Amino acid sequence: MDRRHFLKITSSGAAVATATTASLPLFAAPAQQLGDAGLSEQQWQTLDAVLDHLFPSETDAPGAKDVKALHWLQTVLLDGQTDEVHKQFLRAGVVHVDETSLELYQKLFIALQQDQREAVLRSMEKSKQQGRAWLQEMIRYIFEALLSDPVYGGNPQAVGWEWLQHTPGFPRPPKEKRYFLL
Amino acid sequence: MSHDFDVCVIGSGAGGGPVAYALAEAGYSVVVLEKGPWFTEEDYYKDELACCIRNAYTPDLKEQSHVVETELDEGGWRRRETAQDTSWNLWNGNVVGGSSNFMSGFFHRLKPVDFKQLSAFGPIEGANVTDWPINYDDLEPYYTKVEHVVGISGRVVDHPHQEPRSTPDFPYPPTAEHPVSGLIDQACDKLGVHSVPMPRAILSKPDLGRQSCSYNGYCGSYGCATGAKGSSRAALLNHAVAGGRCKILPDSQVIRLQSDSSGQITAVEYRDKNNVVKRVDAALYVVACQAVETSRLLLNSTGEKHPHGLANNSGQVGKNLLFAGGGAGSGRLRYADFPAEKREEMRQIGPFINRSIYDYYVIDDADFGEKQKGGTIDFVHLHPNPVSRATRQMRGSDGLLWGKPLKRRLEQHFREGSYIKIEAFCDWLPVDDCFVSLDSKVRDKWDMPVAKARLGFHVRNLQVGWYLASKGAEVLKAMGAENVVSFASGSPPLNLMAGGCRFGDDPETSVLNADCRAHDVDNLYITDGSFMPSAGSAPFTWTIYANAFRVADKIIERLGGNKFQSLSS
Fold first, then answer.
1. Euclidean distance between CA atoms B31 and A75, whole angstroms
2. How confident is the model at residue A34 (pLDDT cuts 50, 70, 90)?
3. Which of B39, B44, B54 to mutate to test the interface with A (most CBs of A within 10 A)?
4. Contact residues on chain A for B402, CB-CB shorter than 8 A
5. Strand, helix or coil at B487?
6. Does B406 touch chain A (CB under 8 A)?
7. B227 neighbors B40 (Cβ within 8 angstroms)
8. B390 partner at 20 to 30 Å CA-CA among A38, B305, B525, B533?
């Protein structure tokens, strides 16, 4: 049995298992573009459009809008417990979306057609920067909004659980026992 | 000489709880220092964000981190600081009761062969295999004690690898079973292997002042809201405190153990919730902080007689760190393959699978090589955590999945079948490249060096892990499962750690003697999994509980025996 062979399997396995990356290097965006307080209104629109593209609403299946994914990300960005480096990473990705849109189509992301939006995000996924990691984080946050207990503000009326026929455990957390209040 | 307490226990998990319980019951005063908060059943909810995503039960890694080193393909070691790379978090539950609050409670005894591995199979090149200084018979009464005091549910069946027992059966009947259990039994019958009910540290009926399991399907990783899970807190510390002789100090971070010119411990220095430095002293000290942190505390506790750390005069503290070696796998039973009336049964969330195979505990298979130590195969439900499960679905064969294709995959994953997981456990062989030391750069918020864990492994772990996992996969295939995969990994399961302060008869090659007292420090005992010189081929918790009860009896004897028994005699 070849030890190196196993090591390779191991390291690729570990990559699959790694979901949260709080410490990713920043996009090469100038700091003044990012701002300390958060995103500009236009950047929020970009982020909203990205989330909608990654997880669109359908008649029988909730999308990012239906599970309040944008609001979820806003909460993460405003949360004092979220690592600052991670917040910068999240914001920098939004900047990078519009940079890529302008580069490819000379328009902001929100002004693009569906197929162009797809091309922009696929281009980010394949870029040498942290585009893929950022997209993974966006999808993961959509899943948090989709499948966490409604007490946290996503998954309204348990729409995500109901869609996927998922049975939650009990007892479920009451408002005063949310994790950040423990 | 008067002390604040008879015994001071540092760490309130599976290693500390039995000592506090037994000593208090025998009439001695005990203080337990726990770095984390004191949560109760009123604080534990089925909240995936709390347990598993925002990590509410472990320290903030920006304030208290570790350093890990993993082997690179090209040789050499990759250094990671866990504050930056949070997927390598070595904390496992820093609350009263420790990580036993969050265990699944898959309980296995070690078997007699585990205690005499070197004698039974001879040396393995590159591994520090040794016999234990005690036998299975020394621990058997304490395994039995754990069944009754912690509360273990199960059913003894006749099979070739059944370890000797002093009682015919478990004190509690098995927890409720899922229909999958019967399917595993049938498949094993077909394959000629023995499907054995897996014991659980979960009460199947109300007793011991605790409620029965509520079968809600969210067990491992979650705190138990009924008290049915046999955590150190629910099963032991609550009783010890109620008896009036055990005091628990939560939110108390031990900084160092102070020692005098004779090398004995004189006091424990700790920080309370308000960050005030305090001291407490006792006649005897018991350390049980889980393997990595136990070694770190000793290494940080230098003194006149212990220039390289407490109990480290032979340089053995932190060496031979162990994890649970092994493999894993899974398969899916499609609901559509069952008759309509069976589908709802299959969809049930709550009842357990609870099946194990021990047929390969010793592998005697000419195709695999010489007769050697193998391990245990467990069959369990896929963890129900929905966010984590969904997250694993986003990778496609050609990049990330998103949009409608991702949504269709989620529907298929969540709605169409029931997943069974294989967890195979083999020895994590003790090697020179798996150890704990102090990091020279990173310090915690109290300015103490953090632990650095080098996580090297022996290739034998992988060979045996693959072997066991593939045997598990044969069972899943015989059940008609689809998408059956099995594999092994050299990546350690960070929640199952032991070793670092192995016990033995020779002070040159071990930290503790057979009673788990430090060779170098007469008033120091270590009762978490650190004492284990080899890992055995099963999760450690039952063994940690049993050994801690065994050591507690040694301590009681040393202090003059059970005070109540002497009064009545």
1. 41
2. very low
3. B54
4. 53-55, 121, 135, 139
5. strand
6. yes
7. no
8. A38
ipTM: 0.94
Helical (H) or strand (E) element with B249: strand B246-249
Which tokens sit at A127?
A: 């870029």
Residues 6+ apart with CB under 8 A from B182: none
Using an 8 Å CB-CB cutoff, list chain A residues near B410: 164
pLDDT of residue B531: 98
DSSP state of B147: I
B218 at interface of A, judged by CB pairs closer than 8 A: yes
Q: Which residue of B has its CA nearest to A19?
A: B391
Which conformational region is residue B233 in: left (phi greater than 0), alpha (psi within -120 to 50 degrees), or beta? Answer: alpha
- CA B65, distance to chain mean position in Å, is 20
Please name every residue paired with B421 in a beta bridge, in sequence order, or none if there are none.
B330, B380
User: How confident is the model over B57-104, as pLDDT tens digits?
Assistant: 999 999 999 999 999 999 999 999 999 998 999 999 999 999 999 999
Nearest CA in chain B to A179: B50
Residue A37 burial (CB count, 10 A): 9
User: Which residues of chain B have a CB within 8 Å of the CB of A139?
Assistant: 391, 394, 400, 402, 406
pLDDT at res. A83: 87
pLDDT confidence of A29, banded at 50, 70, 90?
A: very low
Distance, in Å, from the CA atom of B333 to the CA atom of B184, rounded to the nearest integer, reads 12
B47:A173 CB<8 A? yes
Encoded tokens for B251: 């939110």
Q: Do B415 and A165 touch (CB under 8 A)?
A: yes
Of A133, A142, A181, give the one whose Cα is nearest residue A160.
Answer: A142
Q: How many helices (H) and strands (E) does chain A have?
A: 8, 0
What is the rounded distance in angstroms from the CA atom of residue A76 to the CA atom of residue A180?
A: 12
pTM of the entire predicted model? 0.94
Q: How confident is the model at residue A36 (pLDDT cuts 50, 70, 90)?
A: very low
Question: For residue A30, is pLDDT > 90?
Answer: no
The arithmetic mean of pLDDT across residues B453-482, rounded, is: 97
Distance from the Cα of A15 to chain B's closest Cα (Å) equals 10
Contact at 8 Å (CB) between B200 and B103?
Answer: no
**Beta-carbon separation of B404 and A56 below 8 A:** yes
| Identity of residue B315 | G
Q: Which residue of A has its CA nearest to B492?
A: A10
Q: How confident is the model at residue B118 (pLDDT cuts 50, 70, 90)?
A: very high
Q: Which residue of A has its CA nearest to B389?
A: A143
Do B382 and B352 contact (CB within 8 A), yes or no? no
Query: Strands B399-400 and B395-396, how do they pair?
Result: antiparallel
